[in-house]
Amino acid sequence: MKKGIVTLTAIVFLLSACTNNAEKKESKNTNEETVMVEEIVPVNVITFEEQAEDLVGKKVVITGTVDHVCKHGGQKMFVIETGSDARVKVTPDEQVAAFKSEWEGQNIELTGIVEEQRIDEDYLKEWEEEIMADADMGDDKGEGKHLGGNMEKGGSDADKAEEMEKVNNLRQQIAETEKGYLSFFSILCTDYKVIDTDTEETEDTEETEGEE
In this structure, are residues 56 and 116 in contact, taking their beta carbons and an 8 Å threshold? Predict the structure, then answer.
């Protein structure tokens, strides 16, 4: 009788162990299935404005030619598609830190997050106050086009009349939209690869971290 009890106990133990192993495997498989890879949406310079509204907050990859890098610490860059009027504003995240002026004229592949800037009446009133106070608004005069059309705040030597004309033009555009504001889109760069058109070598963020 004791032998039978021992055998029965062993069988129960084995069945329990098999069940636990199966549950562990199932749990492991379940965990593997929940791992999600962040989607990076490919976009191009020409159609970026059309796509941007649906991509706000999402990560994208875009390739173009560097048209201009802001002289105020490389905190702004514009990428174009050669042969078109399309232009995309790009800003660096904390890791990228700054763009380099020597990139102008070179091709670049950027990965980043689409951001939206909304221009409304409050924004325009603040801009007007800066104009009247002769404030340095921090942008290169004449860089242009990061506000969607041909508008950008001028620098410390900006002409007041020209600045007020920009404000009034934007106010007119807002009046013509039902939303009560204008949306302008840009990319917050999280990674990049510069393609040197002369040497055909590439430079990415990992290689430049020590130089910054």
Answer: yes
64 with 16, same domain? no
Q: What is the pLDDT of residues 152-185, one digit of tens each?
A: 566 556 678 888 998 999 999 999 999 999 999 9
Domain span holding position 25: 1-36
pLDDT in tens, 9-35: 555 444 455 555 544 544 445 455 556
Looking at the fold, whether 95 and 196 belong to one and the same domain comes out as yes
Radius of gyration of the chain from Cα atoms?
Answer: 28
Burial (CB < 10 A; 0-12, 13-18, 19+), residue 186, is: buried
DSSP state of 192: E
pLDDT in the model for residue 155: 57
* 62 neighbors 77 (Cβ within 8 angstroms): no
Q: C-alpha 140: how far from its chain's center? A: 21
pTM: 0.69
Q: Name the packing angle between helices 121-132 and 160-175 (round to 10°).
A: 170
